[in-house]
């Protein structure tokens, strides 16, 4: 068996081959909508200890699914990336200490890195009755978030609970569960919604900040456009069946077994903005997301859709099927964009996104001939 060529980074990443490391940087570049040529720049930022931002990670009302999802990343593993390539100074789930020891570690991390750390918040903030429904060390989570956020260089709300309240904010919302952007009104908060979110959307956001010294472009909801700029429906592997009118009518029927579109079973992909079908989860093949396993998307990244609209209620289709006719080569001046032209432009944009997904997949495939 041929020995791999290993290289050593400052933080003991000697068990990652250079090829695997550069492959990871390429995947991160593509996932952010950047050219692969940016990969060396990302690699240089990651391996520069002076540019590694300290991270403080808090937990509110949540199930820890976001952290669990992050722990299963494997390009490279979380142990070799997050725990060593950035300075994860405090994380309540991964914290070794407990009680007063953990509180001291948190206070020291905030004090020593004031104005420099990235604050990551997982879970919603319960604001009802003075915040008594979530306390840490005897203190309301509301107070902890306000005080810590005021000293952070950037704030990231990871998961749907932190982004907009999540499942616990559903009616009647007895605890007053509130998302971080709403709770910290007037403060820039990057949201990475999902239940759980794709770990690479979070990693890409952090690496963008690390590489370029600024946050990626965000939409009106604070979500990175590279991850939440397109409807799931546009890149779904079952989209051809939708266009052809082939639908699963009920679970287990012939159409369902053949992989037909799940629209009639309540799939919310036509009204949900996310890159799930392009990035997938945890590198386990095409089944690595709900639709790939035969279950409808329930729009977990979208407030007012996930945990709100009943699962089997049919979605509103925002973008109808593109016109079958070719777009005209010429158009009268001042006539605007015809439906055919719009369809053509949409197809070009879709092809660009699809090409990025193919590149990412190829980068993620196992090395051959090495």
Task: Offer a quick outline of the entry.
This protein is of the alpha/beta class and 370 residues long.
Describe what you observe in this structure.
This protein has 370 residues and is of the alpha/beta class. It folds into 2 domains: 2-226, 3-Layer(aba) Sandwich (Rossmann fold), CATH 3.40.50.700; 230-325, Cytochrome-c3 Hydrogenase, Chain A, domain 2 (Irregular), CATH 4.10.480. The protein is built from 15 helices and 9 strands. The protein has helices at 18-31, 39-46, 65-71, 82-85, 100-112, 141-149, 160-164, 180-183, 199-212, 225-228, 232-235, 239-244, 254-257, 276-279, 339-364; strands spanning 54-59, 87-91, 118-122, 125-126, 135-136, 139-140, 154-158, 177-178, 190-192. The strands form 3 sheets. It has a 5-stranded parallel beta sheet with strand order 2-1-3-7-9. A two-stranded antiparallel ribbon has the order 4-8. Strands 5-6 form a two-stranded antiparallel sheet. Helix 1 packs across helix 2 and helix 1 runs antiparallel to helix 15. The chain starts with 17 loop residues before the first helix and ends in a 6-residue tail after the last helix. 41% of the residues are buried. The model is unreliable at 1-14 and 326-370 (pLDDT under 50).
């Amino acid at each position: 068996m041929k020995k791999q060529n290993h290289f050593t980074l400052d933080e003991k990443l000697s068990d990652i081959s250079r090829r695997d490391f550069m492959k990871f940087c390429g995947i991160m570049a593509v996932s952010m909508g950047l050219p692969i040529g940016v990969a060396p720049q990302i690699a240089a930022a990651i391996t520069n200890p002076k540019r590694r931002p300290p991270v403080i990670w808090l937990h509110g009302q949540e199930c820890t699914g976001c952290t669990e999802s992050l722990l299963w990343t494997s390009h490279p593993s979380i142990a070799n990336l997050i725990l060593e390539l950035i300075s994860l100074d405090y994380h309540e789930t991964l914290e070794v200490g407990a009680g007063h020891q953990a509180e001291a570690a948190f206070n020291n991390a905030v004090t020593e890195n004031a104005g420099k750390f990235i604050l990551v918040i997982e879970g919603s903030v319960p604001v009802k009755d003075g915040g008594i429904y979530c306390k840490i060390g005897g203190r309301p989570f509301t107070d902890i978030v306000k005080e810590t956020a005021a000293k952070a260089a950037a704030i990231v709300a990871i998961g749907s609970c932190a982004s907009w309240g999540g499942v616990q904010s559903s009616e009647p919302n007895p605890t007053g569960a509130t998302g971080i952007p709403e709770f910290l009104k007037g403060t820039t908060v990057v949201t990475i919604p999902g239940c759980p979110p794709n770990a690479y959307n979070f990693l890409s956001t952090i690496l963008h900040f690390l590489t370029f010294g600024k946050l990626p472009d965000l939409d009106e909801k604070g979500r990175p456009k590279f991850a939440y700029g397109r409807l799931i429906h546009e890149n779904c592997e079952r989209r051809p069946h939708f266009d052809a009118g082939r639908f699963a009518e009920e679970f287990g029927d012939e159409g369902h077994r053949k992989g037909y579109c799940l629209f009639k079973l309540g799939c919310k992909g036509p009204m949900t903005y996310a890159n799930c079908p392009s990035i997938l989860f945890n590198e386990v093949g095409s089944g690595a997301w709900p639709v790939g396993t035969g279950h409808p998307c329930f729009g977990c990244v979208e407030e007012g859709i996930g945990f709100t609209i009943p699962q089997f209620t049919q979605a509103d289709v925002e973008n109808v099927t593109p016109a079958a006719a070719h777009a005209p080569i010429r158009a009268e001046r001042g006539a605007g964009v015809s439906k055919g032209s719009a369809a053509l432009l949409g197809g070009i944009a879709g092809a660009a996104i699809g090409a990025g997904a193919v590149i990412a997949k190829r980068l993620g495939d196992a090395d051959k001939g090495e």
